[in-house]
């Protein structure tokens, strides 16, 4: 698997709009998309950490370089106070939840 971890700082009051955008993107059914985690910092409710996983580096790159990704990024960037910090890489370990 492959993916990215991003640090995002929202403009004040943009949390709900950001979450709505996320739901819209999720509904697109992006090929190779495995899952996502979104963390909201206790110390600053406008600071988010997002971890996104794809089945492969190829699937990740195809999505990132596609025309819909640029449009989505533009919509997301309008909600942010600064450019996101992206950290791409291979996912080397996961542990599924067991009950």
Q: How is this structure best described in words?
A:
- This protein is of the alpha+beta class.
- The chain has one domain: Alpha-Beta Plaits, CATH 3.30.70.
- It is built from three helices and four strands; from the N terminus they run βαββααβ.
- Strands 2-3-1-4 form a four-stranded antiparallel β-sheet.
- The protein is globular.
- The protein starts with a strand and ends in a 9-residue tail after the last strand.
- The mean pLDDT is 94.
Keywords:
Alpha-Beta Plaits, alpha+beta, 99 residues
Write the element-wise H/E pattern from the N-terminal end onward.
EHEEHHE
Number of strands: 4
Going across the biggest sheet, name each strand in turn. Answer: 2-3-1-4
Could you report the average pLDDT, rounded to the nearest whole number?
94
The CATH topology is what? Alpha-Beta Plaits
Q: Which ranges are low-confidence, i.e. pLDDT below 50, for 5 or more consecutive residues?
A: none
CATH class: Alpha Beta
- Main β-sheet description: 4 strands, antiparallel
Distance between the termini: 24 Å
Q: Hey, roughly how much beta strand do the residues contain?
A: 25-35%
* CATH hierarchy: architecture: 2-Layer Sandwich
**Helix run count:** 3
- Could you state the oligomeric state of the chains shown? single chain
Taken together, the total number of domains comes to: 1
The outline comes out as: globular
Helix content: 25-40%
- Which structural class matches the secondary elements? alpha+beta
Radius of gyration: 14 Å
């Amino acid at each position: 698997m492959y993916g990215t971890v991003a640090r995002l700082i929202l403009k004040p009051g943009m949390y709900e709009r950001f979450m709505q955008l996320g739901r819209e993107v999720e509904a697109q059914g992006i090929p190779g998309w495995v899952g996502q985690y979104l963390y909201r910092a206790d110390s600053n409710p406008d600071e988010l950490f997002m971890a996104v996983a794809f089945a492969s580096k190829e699937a990740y790159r195809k999505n990132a370089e596609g025309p819909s990704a640029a449009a989505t990024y533009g919509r997301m960037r309008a909600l942010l106070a600064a450019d996101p910090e992206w950290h791409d890489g291979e996912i080397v370990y996961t542990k599924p939840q067991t009950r």
